[in-house]
Amino acid sequence: MMNTREIAPAVASLYSELVNGIPESNGYILNRGDSGLIHSLDKLSASAASATNPDGASVAAHARHVSYALSVLNRWANGENPFQDADWAAAWKKSIVDIDEWDALRDELRRESAAWEKNLGSR
């Protein structure tokens, strides 16, 4: 049976591939040439990220939700208990972003994602 320390580097590597795309050496989850979540979001304009689906959710709202979830996980990994007062609905309240907000949101997602990858690898 594997313990957490044995599997953590593999999980961190798979997570990195999903978020950052396939490394030059080899990939395990994505198809060759797939750019991963963050680079895929970088290809969208603020107006495209703000377009809503029939349920009213936009790519920007989804990105905000993922970023928030990662921030909660990072706080938890750093010894806090952020689950008790987590506001999971907040991300869905704003679907439309302008250029500056979209840039800031993607930067926040990059930071939280990198921190989570580091936390995964250190377990």
Write a short abstract of this structure.
By secondary structure, this protein is mostly helical.
Task: Please give a structural write-up.
By secondary structure, the chain is an all-alpha fold. It has a domain at 37-121. The chain is built from five helices and no strands. The mean pLDDT is 90.
Strand percent estimate: under 5%
What is the helix fraction of residues, given as a range?
A: 55-70%
Specify the structural class.
mainly alpha
What does the main sheet amount to?
Answer: none
Radius of gyration: 16 Å
N-to-C terminal Cα separation, in Å?
Answer: 16 Å
List the total number of helices. Answer: 5
What's the pLDDT, averaged over the residues?
90
Give short descriptive properties of this protein.
mainly alpha, 123 residues, flat
Write the layout of secondary structure elements.
Blueprint: H1 4-20, H2 36-42, H3 46-50, H4 59-77, H5 99-121
